[in-house]
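INSTRUCTION: Work out how this chain folds

Token vocabulary: learned, describes local backbone geometry

RECORD BEGINS BELOW THIS LINE
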Amino acid sequence: MAISLREKLSYGVAGAGGDLSYGMTNAFFSNFLTDNLKIRPGYLSGMFLLCRVWDGINDPMMGTLVDNTRTRLGRFRPWILTGGILNAMVLVMMFSNPGFAAGGVGAYIYATVAYLLWGMSYTIFDIPYWSFVPALARDPKERNTIASIPRFFCGVGQGAVSLLTVAMVDKLGHGNEPLGFHRWAMILAGAYILLVVITVTGTKERYTPEKKESLTLKKAFVTIKNNDQLLFFMLTAICFNTGWYLTNGLGVYYFKHVLQRYELYAVFAGIVAVGQMLGLVLFTVLSNKFTKRPVIIGAMGFAAVGYLALFLLRNFRGKSLGVIPLLNEPIDVGFVLFALFAFLCCIGIGAMFVAETVMLADVVDYGEFKLGYRTDSIVFSMKSFLLKVAYSIQGLIMGIGLEIGKYNTAEAAMQPQSAKTAICAMAFAIPVVLIACSFLVFVRKYKLHGDFYNEIMQKLRVKHAEEEGRSLDEEVEA
């Protein structure tokens, strides 16, 4: 049964809400803590790692809870609403000045508790939200389209955060950066809740297989362990995503401290947003015309080439080309080249982000094929988990790198050359290595493509038809 464009868009808009929160956390939270609360980068490494240990238990628990949920609104929408509201509230908490002395013990405790609560509340929203994809459609091409829509809105959410945050913090805070962050977080939280409400009221589940037994937490861990393609997918995605999270998380540091052109961060963010949106559109178009495997490999290649060029152009300069319209900021040849390769890089990144959602939906089918039972939310809980693992590895690398580079939290405006070198290496060089690791795992271990994947889908169609008392032709039509 075809899904209307209105319902697809209703499903997608909550992705923008979630990424308003995720984008603020990924791009600005570390800098907010180091430059405003004076928390040492080395502590952030341990804080991120500690919270991810809990997520290793918490995420499968949430997936189990969602898979066992039965309400009038279905399995997913009650949790999407609950998680969205809670996560929006915690976002405001994270970007608040708690009144503790900068660099004091209270500030460290507050930051840790806030980040732990953010991870838990984001899990409540994120797992059921992405678990919707295989519940909305069975056809692989329909899934490609459905998965690209929330990824598009995610790009809108992240783009809005990246483009507007610097200016809005300054405007709302009137020079008081912590106050500006707090007020801006409140605005984003309100938009987040509104978008989640639209999703919950504008969608419905179209395929919910009847559960013959409740799924226990123990069985959830067994499911994850025995789904080899899920494990290889996770490794592929963690390596790739960590590279981008490093760039995104260090973007503020790079423009603020390395180039000392903080105003250009918004320009860079706009280029990133447009590139990623183009990437997700290209993935949808190309994967419907060709198979997913070469499209994914091409996306990785685009990202790697872009990163190499960005590293070489990291101290861009050249002949002046005048000023940027509206912003009235000077621009030179070096920045134009930097922007072009950032755009190329982000096309690949955007394509990979939507590819990961589609791949995970395929992994759900593979798990049902191999294990004999379907666990949408358990598998999709790994998406939330792997994103947070990637974010934690990013935090670990950032914290260690900034410590080694002797990043100055006491006087953030005065950074030694060693800190600037560390920022550039982590933002543009390390991601290339991580993409290479992702590529090797994908081409050698991920096998859900070609004849093997077609065989899986054919057997599942037969299985679903038998379970629901329909002919195979009726199942294919559904």
